[in-house]
């Protein structure tokens, strides 16, 4: 039995039941993808999943889950005998009992249960009680007259169930940042469609591996769309060369990708585009250039990393497992990158570029 806790969705008035049902569906779907058939039941702010203990790590990666515990269900009267057997052979330096009484009709309070079970452990094993920093925590939750006993609480992703907030198209470059941006949108309940602009180098391998990793946080396989970067960008580069404004390549490249992503989003019924932009990191991510890019694409663009620094982004990438995929393949610089790049472009120069692109029927304002 896996005891699943959720937090934020419990306070979503009007949509709470919808979110709870979706979370249960996503949990069962995630388990099926790993070859585990299970049943789930919603009881008093908890989801009880009838599955083997190994399912806990899978469930912990489902957005919307705050924490999970492999647990054993029993009557309260059976708890001492169960603990006598379950704790046999252990010798922790200290312990504590932590009870949560979700069933307020149960006659004993949480404090009374802690004292009663704690006293039993001391008598039975002679262990020291430490309420601040115990080596072993014995967890008990009282739900519908039943006791659920556990010794582990695995931290979950948190957030909202995937697909409760609609779909978005996430640009994945093969770098560190974009997978983190995609993950954070999934964590907030968005279903993602991944789009990669392929240059025929290692970036595609990184993206394919990254999508497999992100699948662990999704109830269903993430769709990956591969676009030919050269074909998408070539007309824009030709226009810049004619204008002798190659220093704008990075900005215009970003616009080209965003425009194509917007087309895909409309085809797929997605509500926005997600990028891994972090303010000031590279030439196309200065505030000025982000302004030009945003104003040039008439479609919502979400940038969840905008206020993060590189260390924060790397920390999340390590936690979710995408950082290692980036390290496995050497980075390849973009072949279109000019020697000099614009970081603070002028509006009048940008207008010249847009006018030229419009004439080529590659841009619509």
From TrEMBL:
Keywords: ATP-binding, Cytoplasm, Nucleotide-binding, RNA-binding, Thiamine biosynthesis, Transferase, tRNA-binding
Enzyme class, UniProt record, top EC level: transferase
CDD domains the record matches: THUMP_ThiI (cd11716)
Locations listed in the record: Cytoplasm
Listed SUPFAM superfamilies: Adenine nucleotide alpha hydrolases-like, THUMP domain-like
Binding site for ATP: 171-172, 196-197, 254, 276, 285
Keyword Cytoplasm: yes
Pfam families: ThiI, ThiI_fer, THUMP
Annotated signal peptide: none
Gene3D superfamilies according to UniProt: 3.30.2130.30, HUPs
A molecular-function term among this protein's GO annotations: CCA tRNA nucleotidyltransferase activity
Domain THUMP: 53-153
Reaction equations catalysed: [ThiS sulfur-carrier protein]-C-terminal Gly-Gly-AMP + S-sulfanyl-L-cysteinyl-[cysteine desulfurase] + AH2 = [ThiS sulfur-carrier protein]-C-terminal-Gly-aminoethanethioate + L-cysteinyl-[cysteine desulfurase] + A + AMP + 2 H(+); [ThiI sulfur-carrier protein]-S-sulfanyl-L-cysteine + a uridine in tRNA + 2 reduced [2Fe-2S]-[ferredoxin] + ATP + H(+) = [ThiI sulfur-carrier protein]-L-cysteine + a 4-thiouridine in tRNA + 2 oxidized [2Fe-2S]-[ferredoxin] + AMP + diphosphate
Listed EC numbers: 2.8.1.4
Metabolic or biological pathway, per its Swiss-Prot or TrEMBL entry: Cofactor biosynthesis; thiamine diphosphate biosynthesis
The organism's place on the tree of life at top rank: Archaea
Gene Ontology BP annotations: thiamine biosynthetic process; thiamine diphosphate biosynthetic process; thiazole biosynthetic process; tRNA 4-thiouridine biosynthesis
One cellular component (GO) term of this entry: cytosol
Function: Catalyzes the ATP-dependent transfer of a sulfur to tRNA to produce 4-thiouridine in position 8 of tRNAs, which functions as a near-UV photosensor. Also catalyzes the transfer of sulfur to the sulfur carrier protein ThiS, forming ThiS-thiocarboxylate. This is a step in the synthesis of thiazole, in the thiamine biosynthesis pathway. The sulfur is donated as persulfide by IscS.
NCBIfam families in alphabetical order: tRNA uracil 4-sulfurtransferase ThiI
Family membership: Belongs to the ThiI family.
Protein name, per record: Probable tRNA sulfurtransferase
Organism: Thermococcus barophilus
Source species taxonomy: Archaea, Methanobacteriati, Methanobacteriota, Thermococci, Thermococcales
């Amino acid at each position: 039995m896996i005891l699943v806790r959720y937090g934020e969705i419990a306070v979503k008035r009007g949509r709470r039941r919808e979110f709870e049902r979706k979370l249960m569906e996503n949990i069962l779907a995630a388990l099926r993808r790993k070859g585990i058939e299970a049943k789930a039941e919603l009881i008093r702010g908890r989801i009880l999943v009838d599955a083997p203990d190994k399912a806990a790590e899978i469930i912990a990666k489902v957005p919307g889950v705050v924490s999970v515990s492999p647990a054993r269900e029993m009557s309260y009267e059976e708890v001492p005998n169960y603990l006598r057997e379950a704790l046999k052979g252990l010798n922790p330096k200290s312990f504590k009992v932590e009870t949560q009484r979700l069933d307020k009709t149960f006659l004993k309070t949480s404090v009374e249960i802690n004292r009663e079970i704690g006293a039993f452990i001391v008598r039975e094993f002679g262990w020291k009680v430490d309420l601040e920093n115990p080596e072993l925590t014995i967890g008990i939750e009282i739900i519908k007259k039943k006791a659920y006993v556990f010794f582990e609480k695995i931290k979950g992703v948190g957030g909202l169930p995937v697909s409760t907030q609609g779909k978005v198209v996430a640009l994945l470059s093969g770098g560190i940042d974009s997978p983190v941006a995609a993950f954070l949108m999934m964590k907030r309940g968005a279903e993602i469609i991944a789009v990669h602009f392929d240059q025929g180098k290692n970036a595609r391998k990184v993206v394919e591996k990254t999508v497999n990793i992100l699948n662990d946080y999704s109830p269903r396989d993430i769709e990956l769309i591969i676009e030919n970067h050269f074909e998408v960008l070539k007309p824009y580069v030709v226009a810049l060369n004619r204008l002798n404004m190659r220093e704008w390549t990075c900005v215009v490249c970003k616009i080209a990708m965003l425009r194509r992503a917007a087309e895909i989003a409309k085809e797929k019924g997605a509500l926005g585009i997600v990028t891994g932009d972090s303010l000031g990191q590279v030439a196309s991510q200065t505030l000025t250039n982000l302004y030009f890019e945003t104003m040039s694409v008439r479609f919502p663009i979400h940038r969840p990393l905008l206020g993060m620094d590189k260390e924060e982004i790397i920390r999340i990438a390590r936690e979710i497992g995408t950082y290692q995929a980036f390290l496995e393949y050497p980075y390849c610089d973009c072949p279109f990158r000019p020697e000099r790049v614009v970081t603070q472009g002028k509006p009048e120069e940008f207008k010249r570029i847009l006018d030229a692109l419009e004439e080529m029927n590659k841009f619509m304002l």
